[in-house]
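HUMAN: Mind sharing a backbone?

ASSISTANT:
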Amino acid sequence: MKEALFYEKSEESKVLCRLCHHHCLISNGRRGLCGVRENRDGVLYSMVYGKVVAEHVDPIEKKPLYHFQPGTTSYSISTLGCNFRCEHCQSYEISQYPQTHGADIAGQDRCPAAIVTSARKAGCRSISYTYVEPTIFYEFAYDCAVSARQRGLANVFVSNGYMGHEVARALSGVLDAINIDIKAFTEKFYRQVCKARLAPVLENVRLLHELGVWVEITTLIIPGWNDSPDELRDIARFIKGVDPAIPWHVTAFHPTYKMLDRLPTPAPLLLQARDIGHAEGLRFVYCGNIAGAGGENTVCPACCKTLIKRVGYRIADNLLVDGRCPSCRETIQGFWQ
């Protein structure tokens, strides 16, 4: 347990949490929507500091990040909890654990120095804060990130993008890359499926890009929910308005958790989404989470030469030379070292 950051004391021993855009007003003895930040006599505590429930070595491409240290591995960690209630969550066993297990907090006690040491021993080039929304274990993630930077490792968030603006600014000092989900482009989807709002996510995409963090976007395409050409076009236009070089990952949905009534995303739908992204002026659009769809390679937007060939999460070939296409010398935006 550690005193939380980004909160204000209120009347009658209540506290106002400003970690994310839910802005939970938490009474004494209660927790915020994330299930892991508790008010004890007017002091807000993180109940998951150092309580690690997932710790794996992953390819950076699994995050997915295709333009950040390709071909390297990332030491991936998570605690319990989440500030979303996504009905299609693939990690619901840990993201919703406090709500489904009587507010219990599980996890192996770990300190930031031990996490960084494990990452270096595993040969990883970065640490990823992932599997659930990492903002909810901000205090632990931040301390790990500071230690990682001191020992030559990069830091990556895989996020729903719902952190407060002050939090995003604080993170930018230690965060190298982030993949943010734009889950749909309607407030209806965010309200009904995620129990959140779209607008703060879009604001944070703009803000983190402006702050110099490398940003990539993922949209999980769910048949019948967010798969219309108009909605996909709106997402692509938004991304282009921020920066046409931001990679957009359109990925396949598989029925899970509370959304078992939808069919898996067919490959042609992903390819259609990729075509829409390119037609709207995005330089890099990738298909993912489905075998045989294609669309995983990095292609030069100027001369169409295949520059990075991927087979699943493995890099089969990388022809980039100092971040440029070897044929036409076009700059390919990203962090390639």
Q: What stands out?
A: The radius of gyration is 20 Å. Residues 168 and 314 are 31 Å apart (CA to CA). The longest strand covers residues 214-221.
